């Protein structure tokens, strides 16, 4: 499957693996999304169940700061 973000990147849904589900309030979102865990293939930044309503502004600020810094899909993977 080719993605709309990057037609050159082919993604195989069967190779997705288990997802790491983490609250978007964590201070280390960028590290999680850029290789802290080498075998990590799927990461979900949560702004719902894992975040208190009072902490939602912090979670959204973290995402706004980190998302532009994350590498494109397929980054760092062997073909």
Number of strands: 2
Q: What series of H and E elements makes up the topology?
A: EHEH
Q: Which strand-content bin applies to the residues?
A: 5-15%
**Structural class determined from secondary elements:** alpha+beta
Q: Which regions contain 5 or more consecutive residues with pLDDT less than 50?
A: none
Radius of gyration: 14 Å
Spatial sequence of strands, sheet with the most strands: 1-2
Please state the average pLDDT score.
Answer: 82
Distance between the termini: 14 Å
Coarse shape:
globular
**Sheet with most strands:** 2 strands, parallel
Contiguous helical run count: 2
Helix content: 10-25%
Supply database-style keywords.
two-stranded parallel sheet, 79 residues, globular, alpha+beta, 2 helices, single chain
Topology:
Blueprint: E1 20-23, H1 29-33, E2 43-46, H2 56-66
Short description:
The chain has helices at residues 29-33, 56-66; strands spanning 20-23, 43-46. The protein has 79 residues and is of the alpha+beta class.
Describe the structure.
This protein has 79 residues and is of the alpha+beta class. The chain is 20% helix and 10% strand. The chain has a two-stranded parallel sheet. β1, α1 (29-33) and β2 (43-46) form a beta-alpha-beta unit. The longest helix is centred in the C-terminal third of the chain and has 11 residues, at 56-66. It is globular, with a radius of gyration of 14 Å.
